[in-house]
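User: Structure please.
Assistant: Input sequence and predicted structure:
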Amino acid sequence: MTYLSTTSSNGWYYGIAATSIPRVSMTTLNPVATRQYIRTPEQIIDEVKQSGLRGLGGAGFSAGQKWEACYVEEADQKYVICNADEGDPGAFQDRSVLEGDPHSVLEGMIIAAWAVGASQGYVYVRAEYPLAVRRLKIAITQARERGFLGKGILGSGFDFDIEIFQGAGAFVCGESTALVLSIEGKRGLPKLSPRPRTTQYGLWGKPTVLNNVKTLANIPLIINHGSSWFASRGTEHSKGTAIFSLTGNVVNSGLVEVPMGTRLRDIIFDIGGGIPNGRAFKAVQTGGPSGGCLPAELLNLPVDFDSLTEAGSMMGSGGMVVMDQDTCMVDVARYFLDFTRRESCGQCIPCRVGTKQMFDILDHICRGQGRPEDIDLLEELGKSIAETSLCALGQSAPNPVLTTIRYFRDEYEAHIKEGYCPAGVCFFYQ
């Protein structure tokens, strides 16, 4: 067995295991070599709440508050689900954690289960991640062999086991209610609002905690080092670190982990090495296909949940795509909207019809067939879709369009009024 790993300043593990991953501590139930033997579910939940950990799958909701909401529910059965349905183009943080250190995720799930009173867990992972699935299976087998999963874990009287559920690649199944229905063997459609939270009525109608891979992987670190240790990094309202898949027109691409509040400039230029071949930076999109495109004048923007949202983007799943001077922002908006419209479940009209209408308008603009009123129409449609769509897919889908109009309106006007693409990308009609 070989295990190659490094540990960042905040304790996050990166590694590649040839046959297995040995780091299993079960810190909550085993007092050996731990900072503090935290015995009760209430103590664990309080520790997670005090850490300020927010969901790192996109929503940014307090992990501790979610656990507490599930804990207070009375039920004969509760569940813990790990959302590993990483479907954003260019995002690979969850895959890296699952392939390099799956035990960190399993341990986080076990701690969550102990805290809320769950006896069964599921890892909902994309079938397109065969190596991650294979290593998860190895890790689950190892955990069972060592008594960390199954009946009477470590003689505590606590029962909890984990199964793997492989998703078929539907982007919308990353939404909590659609994911739950998918595990139940039904079509993955977000539930209509108003609806009870999954912590009240989740998998098979039972209270369910659903967290992202990165969120769960942070739990053992918080329990080992304490909430104040975790909260010492980041900003007032965004604690800990941010993890991004840095891709696009950047010298150093790959996974980046930085304290919340780190400037975009520091990530792209100090860590990413800047733009290759001496080209100028033009924009960066954060948060996946539904994230906003931010211009050079916002390079000093701190990367945290609230700052990105205020700028028209989001933390999202953690994708970060850098674009250089030769990028057409109208074409970029068209590309990302094409992805989200194809991934729409089609259940609600604003998302199903509205994103198609927006895509058609953008396509006409890129073909030199745009009309002067198209820019205002795109803004009107985008805001309406964001306000009336059923789930987060439709609510965030217009972000690339709205932010490119907000920050790069001159490019839209050049396409429509002057009949050319400033970046030379939409050349086929010139």
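The chain has two domains: 40-231, 241-429.
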